[in-house]
């Protein structure tokens, strides 16, 4: 933090061979570099790299670590102020990030008045519907088959398209029809 | 059984009935009603052939237990399990039937179209002749003309009085486009007095593949044959019997109509 007076940086005052300091708004005007946060890194709660994926309905706990003006690195803490920049994708409570919707969650951490760069966490898209079509793209609502005819190929699309396309298939009466994965 | 699939699946019909194909992805559920139709299975010369009158569009009848000549399995034997379409009422004595829009799709080098009759009971003693006329006509051939040729070959046999005859006409070129054109009338089958079983005849190409015809008039006339329990039509492609459209028929009295 710099003190500017009449457009010029002002150094801390010296009287009687002492360097003086002052508080303004609860903060030191001329902070000690050893106490000045110059960088914040968002981490996983275990101190590792921050998560990049968040599953549907999932949560993840974060931590943060500050770097100070004199170059030393602080302790990994979980009581930093974590903020979600898009609460429609993910919310934050304390150091816990909670999935809300598919998309990219941007999370920042703030220590000592310094806010980190946002980290990105890809929040999985929840399947909202399943579309069944023929190879020609024709939507299939019901299926009529004839014993002895060639098998019918069906394409499954989970919507939204970003959602996991894995579909679990079952047949109520497997003695009537069989289904195999399209190869 | 539940399985995980990505992208799509191949659904095969196993047997007739209705069921639900259930797809799940997360909380998304898709239920696809599935209706499986089971075509009638006809066993010629068996009791089941009576149900063949319910053939529907696209029905496929699988012929089983037959050899290259569906009418005469082996010397002296009649195909016991084939497939057919019974179009005459039991105990009919005479009539002409007309099939329309029958597709006989050949996939092999041999195919047959013809008629079988199944008495299922001893033929009347003293029956000396059975006249079965058959006309096959293709409205337009490959070149668009109406063919008017005689049939190439006729194979026939009886059950207990086995006899296989081949009738040839020299005028028919070995060309599949003209194969279906048969316009014989009055084919005289030998006496089958006292016999049981089936009689039948058919035409088939001498070479080449079977024709694929979508508008085929197929008529048959018979007379002088009492106690007939059924008379059927067969179209073999080597594996299956195909009926593309509804098979409609009329039973009228001779002489056989050309329309």
Main attributes?
heterodimer; A: 183 residues; mainly beta; five-stranded antiparallel β-sheet; rod-shaped; B: 259 residues; 15 strands; globular
Q: How would you characterize this protein structure?
A:
The complex is a heterodimer of chains A (183) and B (259). With 183 residues, chain A is mainly beta. Chain A has strands spanning 4-5, 8-9, 14-15, 18-19, 23-24, 27-28, 37-44, 53-54, 59-68, 73-77, 81-84, 90-93, 96-99, 103-111, 114-115, 119-123, 129-133, 143-146, 152-159, 166-171, 177-181. In chain A, 23% of the residues are buried. The model of chain A has no long low-confidence stretch (mean pLDDT 92). Chain B has a five-stranded antiparallel sheet with strand order 10-9-12-7-14, with no helix packed on it. Chain B has a four-stranded antiparallel sheet with strand order 6-13-8-11, with no helix packed on it. In chain B, strand 3 and strand 4 form a beta hairpin. At the A-B interface, strand 17, strand 18, strand 19, strand 20 and strand 21 of A face strand 1, strand 2, strand 3 and strand 4 of B.
* Low-confidence sequence ranges of chain B: 40-259
- Which geometry of chain A do the CA atoms define? rod-shaped
What is the chain-wise order of helices and strands of chain A?
EEEEEEEEEEEEEEEEEEEEE
Apparent shape of chain B: globular
> Tell me about the biggest sheet of chain A?
5 strands, antiparallel
Quaternary structure of the protein: heterodimer
Instruction: Report the end-to-end length of chain B measured between terminal Cα atoms.
Output: 54 Å
Largest sheet of chain B: 5 strands, antiparallel
- Strands across the major sheet of chain B, in which order? 10-9-12-7-14
Computed over alpha carbons, the radius of gyration of chain B is 21 Å
Unreliable stretches of chain A (pLDDT < 50, length at least 5) are none
Number of helices, counting only DSSP H or I runs of 4 residues or more of chain B: 0
